[in-house]
Write a sequence for this structure.
RNA sequence: GCCAAGGUGGCAGAGUCUGGUCAGACGCAGCGGCCUGCAGAGCCGCCCAACGCCGGUUCAAAUCCGGCCCUUGGCUCCA
């Protein structure tokens, strides 16, 4: 069984192939603001792809760029006292981005290249394109001539004539064709561009951003070259997978193909994967629209596991809706997985788990879950179906534990035992598939604070138990409610109360 | 206007490539039962219900073809 993915360039589902190492390039973000859940959706799907490829035996070389040169970054210079240059702003948001990535439990990329580190490579790429006749200099800027690249438009099905018809030649007199795009822009950020993106009043000073010397004079890299230069530098001329948001298909990725293939003469990417948008109230979550939920805020409010379970609720290539309802659903799905995992571990580690106990249904359910999970993942990374395989396993685990508990309560039989091997296999399946592949974290860390909190909760539960024995149920219920208010969920069972931190 | 992705039950979301085995699985919400002092969790059952519209091809269409309507994205910084 092999992995099938939906390839934007081929415009169909294709079998994924790679020789040895897989090179994966993820079109990262521009660090002009805090990352939001829309950005994180791409990160998550790239991360799960990375994890799944490793799971099925590939070595993955994952490179994800950080665009730290951009007029939106420049526009924020001076917004804070310590933001006196473009790179100060970029550094601040790069830091929050890395924090967010760690918080989301993403595997680290091999490198996170920045534009500011790769200006020499960008200049070389531009020079090559000029030498080969694909690009031309004009007033200190350099443009890619789209008419020289016969396949221009092949990714997004644009045709150059249509694009030309849309352009306004008067305004872009610097260009040969309206659809030509900049590889190198003369001088710094223009005053109008900076003002357009500014979120505050700069007073008399309008920031112009950093410039670098070049054969065409001082200037800044264009908006698309950076990805071509950085991906090629770190992963070679042909990438196995190029991944990005669907909103980048045109012009960004179209232009990357043109630049890269014109320069190297090689195919730029074997597979193009595009992640659908995250829609909030029917509209794209976007920094510019302002309808976003930042990753740090979402991590505080929901936690990494709920966020990841949420993303796993829809296919990467589909649009996904973020609403109170879909978040609530993700919370419930995660809780169910996590509770069942805890329950399975507790039964597995108890003295009642025996070598010779055997529940055929449970063992069969583990095999089915693994098979279904793999089939779903290989089928264009159908994460909801893969998650469903794990949820079906929770059903089997709960049935097994329920049945044994019921037998144990029955004085007549009194020989109930948990199926040790079956539970062990179930726990391993949760850990490998839910943990390693989906990146969910089943085991809570038990640092000092958590331990202390646990001891305090136990203490309160003892008090509550005494109240219950005395028949003071109202008091007992008050205690349970009070604990819930601070995030501790109490569950009464046959062997006393248990608790979990929400 | 041009290009692209979509429109499936109360919600959410597969299935479309490769027509029949599908209107599925998981879940959320809702309802009933078991269990429980109550609640929660868990288990069992129910939810008699949906393929945007109009044509066409076919023995057979959610799936293929044509037309139309609507939503979203891109064409300008964007994941």
């Amino acid at each position: 069984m092999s992995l099938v993915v939906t390839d934007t360039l081929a415009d169909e589902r294709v079998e994924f192939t790679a020789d040895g190492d897989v090179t994966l390039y993820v079109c990262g973000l521009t660090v002009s603001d805090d990352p939001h859940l829309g950005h994180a959706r791409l990160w998550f799907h790239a991360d799960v792809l990375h994890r799944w490829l490793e799971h099925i035996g590939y070595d993955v070389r994952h490179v994800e760029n950080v665009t730290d040169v951009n007029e939106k970054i420049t526009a924020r210079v001076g917004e804070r006292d310590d933001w006196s240059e473009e790179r100060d702003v970029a550094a601040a948001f790069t830091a929050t981005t890395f924090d967010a990535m760690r918080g989301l439990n993403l595997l680290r990329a091999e490198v996170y290249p920045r534009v500011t580190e790769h200006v020499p490579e960008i200049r070389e790429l531009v020079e090559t394109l000029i030498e080969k006749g694909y690009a031309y200099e004009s007033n200190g800027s350099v443009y890619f001539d789209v008419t020289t690249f016969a396949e221009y438009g092949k990714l997004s099905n644009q045709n150059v004539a249509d694009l030309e018809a849309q352009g306004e030649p008067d305004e872009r007199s610097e260009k040969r064709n309206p659809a030509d795009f900049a590889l190198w822009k003369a001088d710094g950020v223009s005053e109008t561009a900076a003002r357009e993106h500014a979120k505050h009043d700069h007073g008399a000073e309008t920031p112009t951003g950093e410039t670098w010397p070049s054969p065409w004079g001082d200037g800044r890299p264009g908006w698309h070259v950076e990805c071509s230069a950085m991906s090629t530098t770190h992963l070679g001329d042909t990438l196995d997978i190029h991944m990005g948001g669907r909103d980048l298909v045109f012009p960004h990725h179209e232009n990357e193909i043109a630049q890269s293939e014109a320069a190297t003469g090689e195919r730029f990417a074997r597979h193009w994967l595009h992640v659908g948008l995250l829609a909030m109230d029917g509209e794209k979550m976007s920094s510019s629209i302002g309808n976003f939920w930042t990753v740090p805020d979402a991590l505080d409010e929901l936690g990494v596991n709920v966020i990841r379970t949420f993303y796993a609720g829809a296919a990467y290539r589909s649009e996904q809706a973020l609403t109170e309802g879909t978040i609530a659903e993700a919370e419930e799905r995660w809780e169910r997985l996590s509770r069942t995992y805890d329950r399975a571990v507790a039964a597995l580690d108890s003295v009642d788990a025996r070598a010779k106990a055997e529940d055929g249904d449970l063992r069969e359910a583990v095999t089915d879950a693994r098979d279904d999970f793999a089939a779903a993942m290989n089928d264009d990374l159908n994460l909801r179906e893969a998650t469903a395989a794990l949820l079906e396993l929770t059903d089997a685990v709960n049935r097994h534990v329920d049945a044994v508990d019921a037998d144990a309560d029955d004085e007549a039989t009194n020989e109930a035992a948990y199926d040790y091997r079956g539970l062990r296999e179930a726990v391993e399946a949760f850990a490998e598939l839910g943990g390693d592949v989906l990146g969910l974290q089943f085991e809570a860390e038990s640092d000092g604070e958590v331990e202390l909190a646990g001891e305090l909760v136990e203490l309160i539960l003892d008090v509550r138990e005494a109240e219950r024995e005395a028949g003071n149920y109202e008091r007992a219920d008050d205690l349970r409610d009070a604990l819930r208010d601070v995030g501790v969920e109490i569950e009464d069972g046959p062997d006393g109360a248990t608790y979990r931190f929400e």
